[in-house]
Amino acid sequence: MNLLKGLEKAYYLEAYTIQSLFSFDISPFIQVFQFDKGDFIIQEGTEPEYLFYMVEGKAKLYVTHKNGKVSLINFLTPPIFMGEIELLNEEKYSKSIQTSSKCICLGISIEKCKEKLLADAHFLKYLCIFLSNKSTAHSTKYTKHQAYPLENKLAEFILLSSHQSIYKEKHTEISEYFGVSYRHLLHTFSQLSEAGIIEKIKTGYKVIDKKKLQALADEIK
Amino acid sequence: MNLLKGLEKAYYLEAYTIQSLFSFDISPFIQVFQFDKGDFIIQEGTEPEYLFYMVEGKAKLYVTHKNGKVSLINFLTPPIFMGEIELLNEEKYSKSIQTSSKCICLGISIEKCKEKLLADAHFLKYLCIFLSNKSTAHSTKYTKHQAYPLENKLAEFILLSSHQSIYKEKHTEISEYFGVSYRHLLHTFSQLSEAGIIEKIKTGYKVIDKKKLQALADEIK
DNA sequence: ATAATAATAGGAGATATCTCATGTTTTTGA
DNA sequence: TCAAAAACATGAGATATCTCCTATTATTAT
């Protein structure tokens, strides 16, 4: 992790200005962080220091269970707040965020800024909308995931995440995302292959029968 | 559903004043609703008219899937906002809320009040905290539910919901809450019985071996 | 370039959970 | 109070998913 200064800092502050989210001058309170691939932006159990706003990169929100299982709760892509829960409630971080590529984050010092933020209607309104969208997305995901077998959810996911009919996500990540074992994910992929819906290629899978895939996805509400 | 007037209305407004959540006079915008057991406070697909704040009763938040499955997302108990997501985003209701006993709700007219609410830092701060707690609770529930078998989750739930070692929830509801079949819930109850941890009685179950039950619950993060 | 690490792949058997079917008991509404 | 509806109970067989194991590629770091 690097704290950017000088020209680099200025560049990102200008390219991704977030002043419009606040009704007071936020610039004195912002740092620009650069996280390398694999770095932790936030670690479970540590004390929050910054409210982060990711402007570039891609990260993963994780939680680790007692039994050693890891749940990938979500993929995080800009623009997104991170650590806003801990800004609102005096709590340690309960989840981890790890980058999956280089990430640029604006960090607003909680210590210096908390009171101002919690009194700023403009920011609070934005945050409320952000939180409510997050909540909706989350509850949609999980109620779906509870009500349908992996085959349907995977069909939906392949359609969403493939480009030009090519799917190339990492099995290890996706199995954690769906909360199923690696083995079972593989098994479901080969089912789809055997049904002639997708086809294994060097770099991943190719969608052969989009209609059937869509039909599987459409079984989900 | 009844709109209360006169003395009844005055009684609830006084008993459960929510003026402290707002920095403007909210009283002109509040109605008092009484819902009977089984009534829908909110129905999927309908247009939001009120931001509700439940002060008495108990209700259930549901979603219905294409495949006919129903997920009981949560039990709602006072004090709680309902319909706040739809206040923030211009959307129809995406879930249903049905009472499981008589409920008293304060209803704030969205049409008359939306602008004032979304500019009130005091209210927005409260709402942010509410939403963030909801989000945390939700994500905790679902990551747990994905990572542990019913036996553990049920053990935790029995401990939480039993009084004086007596558990008496409805199987039909609880199976929907956990997103498992009725059959499987029953099966898990009899496992716990066979292990001598609980015992079936007329009105429900009695906790026999609290330590073992706690141990099962403790396997969960 | 090479060793270490992470990701892919698939077999085999166990277990958690589901669906369907059927009967009994309790609760509820007219 | 009686019939209908909801809730409880349980068997049997199917299926979704898991764990453990063992190889074979890719990637990454020194």
Can you give a write-up of this model?
The structure is a homodimer of 221-residue chains. Chain A is an alpha+beta fold and 221 residues long. Chain A folds into 2 domains: 114 residues, Jelly Rolls, CATH 2.60.120; 71 residues, Arc Repressor Mutant, subunit A (Orthogonal Bundle). Helix content of chain A is 42%, strand content 25%. Chain A is built from 8 helices and 12 strands. Chain A has a 5-stranded antiparallel beta sheet. Chain A has a 4-stranded antiparallel beta sheet with strand order 3-8-5-6. The first copy, chain A, has a 3-stranded antiparallel beta sheet with strand order 10-12-11. In chain A, helix 5 packs across helix 8 and helix 6 crosses helix 7. The longest helix of chain A has 27 residues. The model of chain A has no long low-confidence stretch (mean pLDDT 93). At the A-B interface, helix 2 and helix 4 of A face helix 2 and helix 4 of B. Chain A binds a DNA duplex (30 and 30 nucleotides) through helix 7.
Spans of chain A of 5+ residues with little confidence (pLDDT < 50)? none
Task: Please bin the fraction of helical residues of chain A.
Answer: 40-55%
| CA-atom Rg of chain A in angstroms | 20 Å
Briefly, what CATH class of the largest domain in chain A?
Answer: Mainly Beta
Overall CATH architecture of the largest domain in chain A: Sandwich
Biggest sheet descriptor of chain A: 5 strands, antiparallel
According to CATH, what is the topology of the largest domain in chain A? Jelly Rolls
Overall pLDDT level of chain A: 93
SSE string of chain A, helices as H and strands as E = EHEEEEEEHEEHHHEHHEEH
Quaternary arrangement of the chains shown? homodimer
Helix-strand category of chain A? alpha+beta
The count of β-strands of chain A is: 12
Chain pair forming the biggest interface: A-B, 43 and 43 residues
Distance N to C terminus of chain A: 41 Å
Strand % of chain A is 25-35%
The CATH superfamily of the largest domain in chain A is identified as: Jelly Rolls
Q: How many domains would you count in the coordinates of chain A?
A: 2
Estimate the global geometry of chain A from the Cα principal axes: elongated
**How do the strands of the widest beta sheet of chain A line up side by side?**
1-2-9-4-7
Count of discrete alpha- or pi-helical segments spanning 4 or more residues of chain A: 8
